[in-house]
Design a protein that fits this description.
Elements: E1 12-17, E2 20-25, H1 30-36, E3 60-63, E4 70-71, E5 82-84, H2 88-104, H3 113-119, E6 145-147, H4 157-162, E7 172-175, E8 182-185, H5 201-205, E9 211-213, H6 214-222, E10 231-236, E11 245-251, E12 254-259, H7 273-277, H8 280-289
Domain 4Fe-4S Mo/W bis-MGD-type: 230-286
Keywords: 4Fe-4S, Iron, Iron-sulfur, Metal-binding
Domain 2Fe-2S ferredoxin-type: 11-89
Length: 290
C-alpha cells in the first residue's frame, strides 16, 4: 500500500474582508478567501485547474492602499490586508466589464451571466445595435465538438488546457490583435487538419459554451437540451487501467456528454478522446438488449 507523504502545514495569514476579520492559508488567493467566507464573487476566466490569466476582470476587488482594483482570482492574500468586495468602485467596474462582454459576444449559454447582468445593473444594449460583434457561424468540422466563437470572450483557458498546463498538444493559440484577436488553429486550418487530438479538455474549461459537445450543440439547436432533466453519474473509465473518473450526463436515458471531476487526483478534470467521447458503445449495448 502506497503511503501519502505528509506535507508541512500552511501558515495562516490574517486579513479583513468587508470589515470582518478572516484567516486564509498563505499562498491562497483573495478569491479563495472570499469563497471560504461565503462571499459570491463573479468570475469567468478563473478555473480551478488552471493558472489564473486575469483576462475577464469581473472578479476585481478593492484593496486598501492599492491604486487600482485587484483581480481576486490571482492576487495572493497578505498579512494585514484590508479588502472590500462590494464597493461602488468594484461594482461599477464589474458592470462595465459585463456590458462590454455581453454587447460583443453571445453570453446566452454562459452560466450565471444573466444573473450577474441583472445584479450589477449592466445594460449591454446601451452601446446600440452597431456595437462590434464577431458574427461568425459556428465551426462544425468534426463529429465530436463545435467551436462557436460568437460566444468566445478570449479568456485563453482553452489555449492553456491544450498547451503547457495540461495536454501539451498546442493545437490552438491566439491569432490576430485587438478586436481581430481570436482562438485559432495554426494557419486557421480546419480542426481535422490541425494537431488536435480531440481530448476535449478545452471544452471542459470553456466558461461560455464557445466550445461544446456536438451532441449538446445539436440538442440546443433542436430545443431539446434540458440540464434540469439530466442526471450525473460518476464512474471509472473502462478503456485502460489509468483509473480516470468520468461523470456521465444522462438525459432521456441517453448519455449526452461526459465530464470529469476536477478534484480527482488522477485526471484533474482532463480526459483523452476515448474517455471524453467514446461512450456510444454503452448506448449501443443498451439498444441491443432492448
Amino acid at each position: 500500500m502506497t503511503s501519502i507523504p505528509l506535507r508541512p502545514p500552511r501558515r495562516l495569514v490574517d486579513l479583513t474582508l468587508d470589515g470582518e476579520p478572516v484567516r486564509a492559508p498563505e499562498g491562497s488567493t483573495l478569491l479563495d478567501a472570499c469563497r471560504a467566507a461565503g462571499k459570491d464573487i463573479p468570475t469567468l476566466c478563473q478555473g480551478d485547474t488552471l493558472t489564473p490569466k486575469n483576462a475577464c476582470r469581473v472578479c476585481v476587488v478593492e484593496v486598501e492602499g492599492a491604486r487600482t482594483l485587484a483581480p481576486a482570482c490571482s492576487r495572493r492574500v497578505e498579512q494585514g490586508m484590508e479588502v472590500r468586495t462590494d464597493t461602488e468602485r468594484a461594482r461599477h467596474s464589474r458592470k462595465v466589464v459585463l456590458e462590454l462582454l455581453a454587447s460583443s459576444t453571445d453570453m446566452s449559454t454562459t452560466p450565471r451571466a444573466a444573473e450577474w447582468i441583472e445584479e450589477y445593473g449592466a445594460e449591454p444594449d446601451r452601446f446600440g445595435a452597431d456595437a462590434a460583434r464577431v458574427d461568425e457561424e459556428p465551426k462544425v468540422d468534426n463529429d465530436l465538438y463545435v467551436r462557436d466563437y460568437d460566444k468566445c470572450i478570449l479568456c485563453y483557458k482553452c489555449v492553456d488546457a491544450c498547451g503547457e498546463q495540461w495536454q501539451n498538444t498546442f493545437a490552438i493559440a491566439v491569432a490576430g490583435r485587438g478586436f481581430d484577436a481570436r482562438i485559432s488553429t495554426e494557419h486557421d486550418a480546419p480542426l481535422t487538419d490541425s494537431a488536435c487530438v480531440y481530448c476535449g479538455n478545452c471544452i471542459e474549461v470553456c466558461p461560455t459554451g464557445a466550445l461544446s459537445f456536438k451532441t449538446e450543440f445539436d440538442m440546443r439547436t433542436a430545443g431539446t437540451w434540458d440540464e434540469a432533466a439530466q442526471t450525473e453519474t460518476t464512474t471509472v473509465c473502462a478503456y485502460c487501467g489509468v483509473g480516470c473518473n468520468l461523470t456521465l450526463h444522462v438525459q432521456d436515458n441517453e448519455i449526452v456528454k461526459v465530464t470529469s471531476p476536477h478534484d480527482n487526483p488522477v485526471t484533474h478534470g482532463n480526459l483523452c478522446i476515448k474517455g471524453r467521447f467514446g461512450y456510444q458503445h454503452v448506448q449501443n449495448h443498451a439498444q441491443n438488449r432492448d
